Amino acid sequence: MIQISKKLLRDKLKIKRRALLENEVLSLSESITKRLIKEPDFKNCENLAIYMASNKEPLLPIPKNKRILLPKIDGNKLTFHLHTNRFKKNKFGIKEPIDKEVFPISKIQLILIPLIAFNSDLYRIGYGGGYYDKTLQNFAKNKTGPRLWGIGYDFQRVSTNFQNKFDIKLDKVITDKKIYV
């Protein structure tokens, strides 16, 4: 397959996502949540990493019965920290936890990862910094550590082979219409 520019896909799908109305974001997020909470791995995990939604990303529930971890940019990678309801915005305007204590990735059972696009091979396009890929590449390569689930809207699925050797493969992608495995 032809390697298409990630930038072109990213730009096209960011425009489409930005066009969502707030009530559409809420409705689509609710559909994603219904699928997510039925998943046994979600129900059974104790340490769950989620993201703070921005730019009309799907909104995720924050379960009370789990240890919730949030990503923070640290150099060119991510670290994960306990959710304490205390945040500051990073250089991209995304809320990050203020907590300095790093939680070991190896103790996280499930990481829910936002995306801009994904394909049928379960590779994702994010914002282009490669933070999740760089942080999780050893876990993904060795099939150890947390499960990696992409969270997005069904319209973000593309039929294009865009991945390269630096991209990590997700274990599944949950959308408003379907779960892709």
Number of strands: 12
Given as residue ranges, the uncertain stretches (5+ residues, pLDDT < 50) are: none
Mean pLDDT: 93
Number of helices: 4
Strand order of the largest sheet: 3-2-1-6-9-11-12
Radius of gyration: 15 Å
Q: Characterize the overall form.
A: globular
Order of secondary-structure elements: HHHEEEEEEEEHEEEE
The percentage helix is 25-40%
Q: Could you give a short account of the major beta sheet?
A: 7 strands, mixed
Distance between the termini: 21 Å
**SSE-based structural type:** alpha/beta
Percent strand equals 15-25%
Description of the molecule:
This protein has 181 residues and is an alpha/beta fold. A hairpin with a 5-residue loop joins strand 4 (87-89) and strand 5. 26% of the residues lie in helices and 25% in strands. The strands form three sheets. The chain has a seven-stranded mixed beta sheet. It has a three-stranded mixed beta sheet with strand order 8-7-10, covered by helices on one side. A two-stranded antiparallel sheet has the order 4-5. The chain has helices at residues 6-18, 22-38, 40-44, 131-142; strands spanning 47-49, 67-74, 77-82, 87-89, 95-97, 110-114, 117-119, 124-125, 147-151, 157-158, 172-174, 179-180. The protein contains four helices and twelve strands, in the order αααββββββββαββββ. The mean pLDDT is 93.
